[in-house]
Amino acid sequence: MQETGSISIHTENIFPIIKKFLYSDHEIFLRELVSNAVDATQKLKSLAQLGEYQGEAGELKVTVSVDKEKRTITISDRGIGMTAEEIKKYINQIAFSGATEFVEKYKDKDASAKDQIIGQFGLGFYSAFMVAKEVEIFSKSYKAGSEAARWICDGSTEFTLETTDKPERGTDVVLHVAEDSDEFLETPRLRGILDKYCKFLPIPIEFDGEVINQTQPLWTKQPADLKDEDYVQFYQTLYPFSEPPLFWIHLNVDYPFNLTGILYFPKVKDELQLQRNKIQLYSRQVFITDEVKDVVPEFLMLLHGVLDSPDIPLNVSRSFLQADANVRKINQYVTKKVADKLAEIFRKDRAGYEQKWSDIGLFVKYGMLSDEKFYDRAKDFALLQNVDGKFSTINEYRELVQANQQDKNGQTVLLYTTDPEAQHAYVVAAQDRGYDVLKLDGPLDAHFIGQLEQKLEKTTFKRVDSETISKLIEKDETTESVLSDEEKTKLQELFAQAISNPAMQVQVEALSPQDAPVIITLPEFMRRMKDMQRVGGGGGMAMFGSLPDSYTVSVNANSAVAQRVLKLEGDAAAKLAKQAFDLALLAQGMLKGEALTQFVKRSAELLAAE
C-alpha cells in the first residue's frame, strides 16, 4: 500500500508560517517531539493497567539519537504507535483544523501575534520543520495485526504514506536537518536542550548511551516520605552553586485545580534581588518556562523552586502563560500557602524565625507592600528590630513604647535609624531620654514605614536625626532658655555668618545643657521622600530627588559652647562657632574633603591655645 496526497489546508505552504510565528525558540522542537513520545509511552502503560493491552510491554523508554554524517536526529519510543489511518487522522488533519483561518489572520502580522494562539491547532509535531527540511515517521500500532506505516513530508503540503517493515511497536520520528540548523547536529547542543526541558520527564530519556532524566522528581512524591536532606539535595540539583535554602513549602493540591511543586526560601539578605527566573514552571513534568509572573505574584519571584500544573493554559509553543481563572486561583493559593508557612514557623519556633529574619525580612516586607491580602496575613509575623537587636511584632512594639513615646497630640512616635553607626550620637540622645530606637536600614524600609503609618492608628515614624531631641516627641513640658531674646538673636547671627551656607537654616533652641551644642537635621518628610526616590519611589517621588537639601542647624542656647561664643569677639567667636558647626557635620557624616582637613587643623590650634 502506498498513498500520496495533500495535507488538508487551503494555503500554499503553512510550514514557513509555523516556523516564523508559532515558536519563539527553535530548540523547542526537541521538547515537543520528546513530549509526544513520552505521551505515547504513558498511554501504553495506561492501557496495560486497564487490561486493554495484554502484550509484553518490555523496556519503556524514549531514545534520542543523532547521526551527524547522515544529518539526522531520531526520536524513538515503544509506545502505542499509529496505524496508517491514525497517521492520516492525527498528523494530516487534526493538526490543521482551523489552519486556514490562522494563516489568514497572522501571516502579515509580527511575531507577537503568537501570543494570541492558545493551543488550538495541536501543532507540536510540526515544530520539527523548524529545523528539518524533511521529516519521516515510522510507526507500528500496539493493536494486534497492525501493519507498520511510513509517512514522509518535505515541508511542503505534499506527503507520502506507505506500508513499511518495522518489527517493534512504537514510533520513530526522523528529522533530516536543514542546512541552516547545523547546531542541532552537535551532541552537546542536544544534551543541553534535553537537560533544560526533559530533565524530569516521567519516562526514561536515553541520549548518547545514558539516561539523562529523573523520572520521579521530588515534587511528585509525598512529603511524609521525604527527609530534610532530600529537599536540600534537590535544591542543589536545581541550583548547583547556591547556598542551602532556609526552608521550603511542598505544594500538593488537586481541587479546584491541579498543582504540585516545591517552593524554597533562599537567603535574600538586604539586597533587592529580583531574580525573576528562579521558579521553574512544568506541565506534567515537562519544563515550560522560568517566566512565571502570571502564576505567582511579583513578590514571590524572590523564591526558588518548581511549580507543576496541567491546568495552566499555554499557547501553541507552550512558552507564554494566559492569566485565566485557574492562573488567578493558583496565584492566590500559592500566596496563602507561603503566608501560612511563615506563620507556622513563627508560631512554632519564634527564636529560629528571628534568626532567619535578616534573610527573609526583605521578602516579607516586599510582599506586604505589593499584596494587600499578604499584608493582612503577614502583619502578625512581620518583625521590627531595635538597635539593641531585640525583635518585636508590629503590635508588640507599639504596646512596648506607647506609654513613653506618645506626644502631646496622642500620636505614638516610633523612632528609627537607617545607620546606627553614622547616627550614633542621635541614637544615644534618644536612649538617654528613655526612648527606644528601631533599626530600619533596608532598601524597602522607607516604603515600609509609609505603609505602616497608613495602617496603624495614630502612629508616626521619625528618624532620630530628623529633629532635635525635644521635637522628636513633643511633650507639654518646655525647656527654658538661659539666654535673653537679644542674646539669642546675636547667637543666631554669629552662627549664620560663620556657616555662610544658604542650605543651612540656623535657629537657636532651648535644649538640655547635656545635649550637643549644635545639631543638624533634615526634616523627616524631605529625608523620607529622598530615600524612597533612591530605591524607586516612582511617580511624584522623582521631584524630591532633584530638590536641593535644606537642613536645619539648631544651636543649643543652654550649652556652654553657645555661652562661650557670645563672650568672644570677632574672629574668635566665628572660629568657635564654625568649629561647633563642623562637629555637628561630623556627627552626620557630612564633613569631608577640604572642610574636614580645615576642621582637623583648627582643632589642633584650639587645643594648643588651651
Structure description:
- The chain has 610 residues and is α+β, with helices and mostly antiparallel strands.
- The protein folds into four domains: 2-211, 2-Layer Sandwich (Heat Shock Protein 90); 218-348, 2-Layer Sandwich (Ribosomal Protein S5, domain 2), CATH 3.30.230; 383-472, Rossmann fold (3-Layer(aba) Sandwich), CATH 3.40.50.11260; 485-609, Up-down Bundle (Four Helix Bundle (Hemerythrin (Met), subunit A)), CATH 1.20.120.790.
- Strands 1-6-5-4-7-3-2-8-9 form a nine-stranded mixed sheet, with helices on one face. Strands 10-11-14-12-13 form a five-stranded mixed sheet, sandwiched between helices. The chain has a three-stranded parallel sheet with strand order 18-17-19.
- A hairpin with a 5-residue loop joins strand 10 and strand 11 (259-265).
- Helix 8 (350-370) packs across helix 12 (445-455) and helix 14 packs across helix 18.
- The longest helix has 24 residues, at 325-348.
- It starts with a strand and ends with a helix.
- The relative contact order is 0.07.
- Residues 96-107, 109-122, 316-320 and 538-545 have low confidence and may be disordered.
